[in-house]
Amino acid sequence: MSPYKMSGTTVVSFSGGRTSAFMLRQVLDNNADLSDLIVTFANTGKEHPATLDFVQECSVRWGVPIVWLEFRDDERGFAIVDYETACRDGEPFEALIRKRSYLPNPVTRFCTIDLKIRVIHKYLRMVGCSTEETPVDMMTGIRADEPRRVAKIRHRKTTSESKHATMVMPLADAGVGVQDVTEFWKAEPFDLMLPTINGRTLEGNCDLCFLKGANQIYSIIASDRGEPVRKAEWWARMERTAVASSGITGNGALFRFDRPSYQQMLDYSDTQFDMFADHDEAIACFCGD
Ligand code: SF4
Questions:
Q1: Which of 38, 61, 112, 120 is most buried, by CB atoms within 10 Å?
Q2: What is the C-alpha end-to-end distance of the chain, expressed in Å?
Q3: Who's near 192: CB < 8 A, 6+ residues apart?
Q4: Same domain, 33 and 170
C-alpha cells in the first residue's frame, strides 16, 4: 500500500517548506477521499514572507484547505488565522518568550514544541481529534536521506506532546530523498521563492533560527544591510527582553552561548561582508523544511 494512503483521520503538519509541500501533494494524489485530511501550518511570526506566500499558493493552486495556527498566551493557547491576518513580526514567538521569561536554545528548543507541536495538538483537540478515543496519524515531512531524524522518530513512535497521535513518515517509507523533491519542484509551475545567498537557500523556517550555523546567520544579516527593518533586530531585542524579564545580566540570556549575541553579529555585519566561506554546519531543525 502507498505510504501516502490515509487510514482514518490524518494530519499533515505542513512546515511551509518544499519537502513538506511535496508530501502534501503525494497525499492529495494518493487518496480519493480527503474528508479525513487535516492540513495545518503553525506560524511563528518569524517565517520568511516567501514561506507564507508558498503556503497560501499551495492551498489555492491545489484546492486544499490549510488551517493556519499561531501561539497565543491565553486560555485557549492558540489562534486560527489566515494568510491575510498571520503575524509577520514575530509576535507569537515574542509572546512565548515573555511567558517563559527565558530564551529557547539548541538544548531546550521549546519554541518548536510550544509554537508548533502543542498549538497543533490544541487545535486538534478543539475539533475533537487527537484524543484517546480518536487518535490521529500525524504525517511529517522527514525524508529517507535524513536517517538520524528518521531513527529518532521511529524510536519515539508517538509525538512528545501526546500519546494520541502517531508520527508517520511517508517520505522516509517511500525512500524519497532531496533529489526527488528538487526534481518535483523543477517541474511545477510555482515554487518556494526564498532568496539565495551564494547559491544556497538560507532562510527556511524562522529567518535567523539559532540552530543555523553562525556563518549562515552572518550572511543573512549582511544581506539585509540597508533594509528599513533588519531581521536580526528582532532577535537582538528578544535577547534584551529576556535579560530584562529574567533579571539575568551579562551574557546570561542568549539564544546561544557559543557565539556572539545577535546584536554583536549585527554590529559585525556593518563592517564585514561575506562570512559564509567556512560553511559551518547548521543543526537539523525539527521544524522541518
Ligand atoms: S525554526 Fe528554529 S527558532 Fe523557529 S521554532 Fe524552529 S527551532 Fe525555534
A1: 120
A2: 26
A3: 16, 17, 18, 21, 50, 51, 54, 185, 204
A4: yes
Query: Are residues 74 and 141 both part of a single domain?
Result: yes
Residues 203 and 182 in one domain: no
Dihedrals phi, psi of 170, to nearest 5 degrees: -60, -30
Q: Which of 109, 103, 104, 107 is nearest to 240 (CA)?
A: 103
Answer yes or no: is 4 within a domain. Answer: no
C-alpha grid cell for residue 22? 511535496
In whole angstroms, give the CA distance from residue 87 to residue 44. 8
C-alpha 32 – ligand 1 centre gap (Å): 34
111 C-beta closer than 6 A to ligand 1: yes
Can you give the residue range of the structural domain that contains 245? Answer: 196-278
Going across the sheet that includes 165-168, the strands are 78-81, 67-71, 37-42, 10-13, 136-139, 165-168
- Lookup: cell for 158: 508517538
How many A from CA of 205 to the centre of ligand 1?
7
Q: What is the pLDDT of residues 168-225, one digit of tens each?
A: 999 999 999 999 999 999 999 999 998 876 666 766 789 999 999 888 888 889 888 8
Domain boundary at 125, 154, 187, which?
A: 187
Which residue among 157, 187, 217 closes a domain?
187
Question: 209 in ligand 1 pocket by Cβ < 6 Å?
Answer: yes
Q: Give the DSSP H/E element, type plus range, for residue 55.
A: helix 49-62
- Which pairs from 124-128 meet CB under 8 Å and 24+ separation? 124/11, 124/38, 124/165, 126/76, 127/38
